[in-house]
UniProtKB/TrEMBL annotation:
CDD domains per UniProt: ABC_Mj1267_LivG_branched
Domain ABC transporter positions: 8-255
Gene source species: Bradyrhizobium algeriense
Protein family membership: Belongs to the ABC transporter superfamily.
Organism phylogeny: Bacteria, Pseudomonadati, Pseudomonadota, Alphaproteobacteria, Hyphomicrobiales
Protein name: Branched-chain amino acid transport system ATP-binding protein
């Protein structure tokens, strides 16, 4: 099997916070259509790496590129404009709006119809509104929240609110989706359903990079896993390779079996 073309390339990235070295000489790639997970014990540097890739943090050294475009110096919204879309650990939904309305607002933010056109009810605005409503329904269905579509987002369980966050990210039509601890707060059945959703998103052509602590979830969903410890990559490979890697086992000893 030939390797997929490289989508994301992280080269020699280091991040220093004063005297603290949060990341050091980090090199990894994510291929088009791959599901790659970044794991490691608490404080290993996963969130820092995510923040560098998405432009929320400038690396002290090194370079990141996406589909051949250098990301260094680009602002988060410019990186998002290249199709690299992230979710956050804390999902920011509007709790007093319905799930469906949250999606409509998200879609509106990227709409091409001016406010004046919308207020005047011009035909272009009317057909655009119809398309946005159809798209909001599709997205709600895609993440499996159709039965909750007309409930207030604030009344949803924590796991369901994470799904709204994923739907909002999908509304931006990513070519690569970065998921930051997406199943934290989900129960086992929600997590199982979420794994199916991640695979389904990938099958529709979206590349995925995941930071996650839930090891069974990571093992079941990932094509490849990159393991960080103290800011350095200590192992990289398929779930089977990672599961049996002595350096990985040692890094996790004392961390507890479930909290990786
Ligand atoms: N803004 C910052 N200023 C100073 N130190 C920071 C900052 N952000 C992170 N760090 C430090 O950098 C190191 C890596 O932190 P990071 O949050 O990336 O780890 P992590 O692997 O995401 O951890 P966790 O699994 O607990 O979320 C830690 O030692 C952390 O204390």
């Amino acid at each position: 099997m030939t390797a997929p073309a490289t989508a994301l390339r992280v080269e020699k990235v280091a991040v220093h916070f004063g005297g603290l070295v949060a990341l050091s000489d980090m090199n990894f790639t994510v291929g088009e259509g791959e599901i790659v997970s970044l794991i490691g014990p608490n404080g290993a540097g996963k969130t820092t790496a995510f923040n560098v890739v998405t432009g929320f943090l400038d690396p002290t050294h090194g370079a990141v590129s996406y589909r051949g475009t250098a990301l260094n110096g680009l602002k988060p919204h410019q990186i998002a404009g290249l199709g690299l879309i992230r979710t956050f650990q804390r999902t920011s939904v509007f709790p007093n709006d319905t799930v469906y309305d949250n999606l409509l607002v998200g879609l509106h933010r990227q709409g091409r119809v001016s406010l004046l056109e919308a207020i005047l009810g011009l035909p272009r605005a009317r057909s655009s509104q119809r398309r946005l409503r159809e798209r909001a329904s599709e997205l709600v269905e895609w993440v499996g929240l159709e039965r909750r579509a007309h409930d207030l987002a604030g009344s949803l369980s924590y796991g369901e609110q994470r799904l709204v966050g994923v739907a909002l990210a999908l509304a931006a039509e990513p070519s690569m989706l970065l998921l930051d601890e997406p199943v934290s707060g989900m129960n086992a059945s929600e997590t199982h359903t979420f794994v199916q959703l991640v695979r389904n998103i990938r099958d529709r052509g979206v590349t995925i990079l995941l930071v996650e602590h839930d090891m069974p979830m990571v093992m079941s969903v990932s094509d490849r896993i990159v393991v960080l410890n103290y800011g350095r990559i200590i192992a990289e490979g398929s779930p089977d390779v990672i599961r049996n890697d002595p350096a990985v086992i040692e890094a996790y000893l004392g961390q507890g079996a479930t909290r990786a």
